[in-house]
Write a structure and sequence with these properties.
By secondary structure, the chain is mainly β. The protein has a single domain, classed as Jelly Rolls. It has no helices and twelve strands. The strands form two sheets. Strands 1-2-3-10-5-8 form a six-stranded antiparallel sheet, with no helix packed on it. The protein has a six-stranded antiparallel sheet with strand order 7-6-9-4-11-12, with no helix packed on it.
Length: about 120
């Protein structure tokens, strides 16, 4: 059984947020990717459309999450299921960093509103 230690996790930063990658093909995962997301106070991530389902669980803090134009406030302990093809946005309107745990299947891509496509290394 592979064990990925905190010291082995790889950190990526984009759009003001940090993605600490634990489960990917590089760490031995065959089907899933999982990472810790750190969304600093005041951060608004750009709306993007995802190609695969994501399960987004908020561990610490409070966020505004927008799915296909509908915005909901989520708090620690809440889980958001983001379906493929859904326009997804996250904003942290608070004064503390929010921490999430996200899982998806290998191969996730995101498309920004301007058409830019991203294949995030924490999900591939």
């Amino acid at each position: 059984m592979p064990v990925i230690r905190t010291s082995d996790a790889v950190t990526h930063e984009i759009h003001g947020a940090r993605f600490v990658s634990y489960a990917t093909p590089l760490t031995g995962s065959k089907e899933l990717c999982a990472w810790r997301g750190e969304i600093p106070a005041g951060t608004r991530a750009p709306v993007h459309t995802v190609s695969r389902e994501e399960v987004f669980h908020l561990l610490i803090g409070e966020l505004l999450v927008t799915l296909d134009g509908r915005t909901d406030r989520v708090t620690a302990g809440d889980t958001v299921i983001v379906s493929p093809g859904t326009a997804f946005g996250v904003e942290n309107p608070t004064d503390q960093t929010a921490i999430s745990w996200v899982t998806t299947s290998i191969g996730l891509e995101a498309e920004l509103a301007d058409g830019t496509r991203i294949s995030p290394p924490w999900a591939n």
